[in-house]
Records
---
Amino acid sequence: MIDTNVYVSRWPFRRLPGDETAVLVQKLRAAGVVEAWAGSFDAVLHRDMGAVNLRVTEECRKNGNGLLKPVGCVNPMLPDWREDLRRCQERYGMKAIRLHPNYHGYRLEDAVTRELLSAAAERGLFVQIAAQMEDERTQHSLLRVAPVPLQMLPELTKTIQRLRVQVLNHPRPVSWERVYWDFCAVEGVRGLTELLKGSVADSLCFGSYYPFFLWESAALKMKEAGAEGAVLEKLRAGTARVLMGGTGR
């Protein structure tokens, strides 16, 4: 199984079971995960993205014996973001970057977003966009952050060549060209079941959002949906390999 959505380090507002990397790795291995794409909670509020990306790279190298694949973060509102992007690929060998537009203060409609996505695509990096990190109902009163509006995303993937995007933590995945999704935030009885009946099914990847969410939550959604055979294999790893390799839809 490939888990496309995990985090290392500490969530700023409370401790989470599994927020120590060794514990996280132990949990993933016990669950049968052979590869996990790991961003850093530090990327949400820290301003020194270079230091964040270095730490997540070192943390993944020290733990898991190759299980954890570091995913960098680039904040285009900071002056040295192009250098951060270059280092992600050239120095750290990353295959992806993970963006947090709502926490970093930019929109998908902004010109700098197109510039960043174009630069990532030119380097062959795929882009993960965290639609939300925490339900608005449980956020700290001094830091209210709305989910990322995604209406502009289909136009961006249509006009930026080779751009591949995965949206994380969104409750309602839809079928958009070259846009992939995880289903950790899909709620409601038979929520994943209904998605697997539609055209978005081939765009879904397993992503647990562990340790913020219980790892078992995403696994139980697959079980409830009755996914099996080729459908189950795509959810567990097949579609993630397509996303990572830049082939497919």
Note: The beta strands are 2-8, 35-40, 68-70, 96-99, 126-130, 165-168, 179-182, 204-205.
---
Amino acid sequence: MAETEVKNRTAWYFAWALIIVGALVSAQQAFKAPKTTFEWKRVTMDGHRVGGTPVTLENASTALGWWDDDGFVAPNGTHFDDDSPVAVVALALQDVQPHFAELKRVVGHSASMLMNDRDNPDLPLGNLFVDALRDYASRYFKVPMDFAITNFGGIRVPLPEGAVTAEDISAMFPFKNYLCYAKVSGEGLLKLFEQLSATPAFQAVSGATIRVKDHKLVSALIGGRPIDPARIYNVATIDFLLDGGDNISIGALASDVVLSHVLLKDVMVDLVTSTEAAGKLLEGKSDGRVIMED
């Protein structure tokens, strides 16, 4: 075979190889699954785990549907046969409603919805609850609490406007975090405040007035007075913050800690029911107790 013919055939094979490789690459790209882009958004909740209007013993028939001569009628008016999967599930949901009676019980009323925003260090909901925490601890431990602190992350959903049910409170405080009492020196509190000043947002506090600028502590008062480094302060807090929860270790700063079996939701129930008994609405407000400036 002539040398020229060999070269031509080699070039021809090479060209076909390039064509085949190109076709394979194109096919792979064509059948490759498109990249999915996810976008996360924060949405407003009404405070009820069930969403929308909560199901109660009084409105269960309309909220979950009802039965007529033709079978089951969904809340939107759609009819289903009695033995359809939808009707079977609806019946099970209605049958279980009496077991939720305690959760659906209205325990109080709120003047407005109070949101939980971890980026706001002076939040009405956080202020309302941590003030209640300090008051409850003073009564429970029979010692006046100088200061109280809890974490915003422990409040999971907003407080709804209007009727507040036991379920709403359980949804707000689903974790088994317990009330506790710590004796902390003024020096220890200043260290805590300096640590919190360096974070994006402070935690919920009561009994203190804090000012932070450029993530550095500028001033801190307890009960309206400068902190005495040598004095021992009575601090109401939760066990989650004693040993590293949210990077806070109050236990390491304390000379003594007293634990309890009181859950945070118990503290909130006490606040809601006592406010209701007094004929008042739950209200929270921002009052400038923590100011963080850039």
Note: Residues 109-293 form a domain with the 5'-nucleotidase;  domain 2 fold (CATH 3.90.780.10).
---
Amino acid sequence: MSAALESLNRLRERVASDETFGLPSSRLAERLEALASMGFAAFEEQGFPTRRLEEWKGTNLARLEAMDFSRIGPGSPPAEARSIDPSDDLLADADLVFVDGRLLVASAARADLPEGVRVQSLAEAASEDPEIPETYLGRLPDLKKESLAALQTAFFEDAAIVHLDSGVRATRPIRIRSIATADGPTQASASFPRLLVVARRDSAATIVFESESRGTAPGLTAFVAEYHLAAAARIETIQIQSEGAERVHVTSSHARLEGDAHFDSHVFSLGDGLVRSELKITLDAPGAETRMRGFFLGRNRGHVDHFTTVDHAVENCSSDQEYRGVLGDESKGVFRGRVIIRPDAQKSDARQSNANLLLSDRASIDTKPQLEIYADNVRANHGSTIGQLDTEALFFLRARGIDEAVARLVLTRGFAHAIVDGIADDAARHSVAELVDNALASLYPGARSETAPEKGGD
């Protein structure tokens, strides 16, 4: 038995003895207890994914299996968690802030959201409308086939829940922040944040979920997100991961779309550690459409793996996905994109693209876009590219007096901003552009940032 599984077994007994989810005895509490038990049983049966599995051939989780976890969640809380003040400027613009998977603070700014838009913790939702988490939480992941989603389901202790009534539109981005903390230089901690979004008919919102870490110690962040979109609902979601090199970060996102629903996904992987991001979307009624955009950055010896699946289950649906990667130093990127067009999914329209920029001869990318087409009246294409910075464009900038580091930064930012600029919400786009620009600047420490283009430019 691996060190990680042995310590998780030990901690599981401790967690099971606590009051479940901090909720009073109720039908919801009983369902969550049963869901956690199902998750742990499914994880024990499958274990950690290995490279023998087709979906995991590009990523080795030996580093995760070797972790000896000292705690799950914030514990008592640890010193790092206690040091996070709710008035911290980093937390000021968030509607909900979670530390190690539990709510730290809920912002009073939620009051300015329109009536019918609810942004709550699990306890708040259970108190106000328990039917929402009871009906929708844990419905989309297939625990018997997704061991890390099963692990997350076994241990999550809280959740961010966004509920939109029919016909309601959020007037500003909904922001949720998740912070993972460390106890010391060697003790591993595990954090299990969770997000549930239920969008009723003809509702709309932009939702930003940021994951970051504080402290330098090994650890795991396992994040599961579920999106239920009713007919004609429109959701734009932005996931940002910027955790430290010591952590393993795994995201499993699932969306189910009814007729004429529109789901825009933007994923930004900016951390330095081992990252695995999975996105699985089911287009379940005619007229459903999704647009998937992603940008991943590899630095030092980071490993970034993106695995996407779009299931065209019925006719007249469309999907358009574009992921871009920038890989420097000794980093490695993996992209696996899978589009399934079922026999009854005639008149489907599917596009898939992965473009990658290698900044070092020691960096690498393993890319494999895939189409599985079982219908004959469809339009579909896919492709991937691997290249370096354009030498002619670099020469053009150098000839105009721009030093080499700045020129390289300008070109790299232009490549990345093709994804950033796809964010529809202005405020969210500008804040993401700043985060991406700051991350890219770390690749070129000699660049004079004041000479680079303004945020959001090409």
Note: The first strand starts at residue 69 and ends at 72.
---
Amino acid sequence: MVWSTGKLLQNGRYTLQAVIGQGRFGITYLAETRDKNRLVIKTPNDEALNRADFERLQRVFVKEAFKLAKCKHPHIVQAYEPFQEEGVWCIPMEYIDGVTLVRLKQKVLPEAEALPYIQQIGEALREVHRNGFLHGDVRPANIMVRAGRAEAVLIDFGFAREFDHDLTVTRTKELATGFAPIELYSRQAERGPYTDVYSLAATLYILLTGEKPTSAADRGAYNAQLIAPKKHNLLISDAVNKAILRGLKLKGEDRPQSVEEWLVNLGVKAEQSPITVDPSSKPLVPGRQWDWHLFWAAVAAIGALLAVVPSFLGAMNNRHHSPQAFPSPSTPNAPELLRNHR
């Protein structure tokens, strides 16, 4: 159900201006408030609405808002109070005036320009990891650069998952892009901060070379070789070349185990403490603060709807992990990797 331009949401609080993006299960609109402030509103798309497990997807969708709300950082897109419209959950988010790294006019950046972006997103990921989450989809298309400022912002947390989440579905077509590590191709493989390190290293690789690194799937299953970034661009320093290659190690245990460690390898100093945004400086909805009681009531209501789904209950009964427990890395062998593709 794609809403038309001009549609009013929440009794006229928001007016839809245009569709600005679509993902596998979500659609993103540009909207305005009554005060003419721009924001982005994300909802499930038609594919999600037509699925038999739509209510489960709705629950995951609302959890995305909660994850974003916990991760307050100047380099992470800010989420506002979620609401329902015509039975569909909507997440209003900060509107970022700018372009993604994919749409930069200059396709190959010098180190002096690329490294600050990577440092900023690295700091954002530190905050994500500090909250026990994994972004899982770090790539240039999910990094915005604010107009007129060399300031990068991490967006699109639709793929974010807790470190201990037992992934039951893999997304082979989405992952086979060169930015995903091998553990994201398997249902059984463990994940950790080193998973996002791989994707951040791959992002720096393409920023400095204009080329995507060889995909982890091809490297794991077919022994394809990873070309050193310096072979594409001789201006890349030896230290940065080495750091990128270490961040792109096939096995998670061979990579830096934290973003901080990788930034040190890169020669970029990480902040010593998480950068946070003062929640009092900008209300989640103009004139309002997030009503957590309503939020949790909404999550509980969606959970109640799922109580009649046996498969969901069976899956939930088998999950007893702590979200703050970071597992040790492991990587499936090539035959197992191919069997686990979907």
Note: Residues 98-275+327-339 form a domain with the Transferase(Phosphotransferase); domain 1 fold (CATH 1.10.510.10).
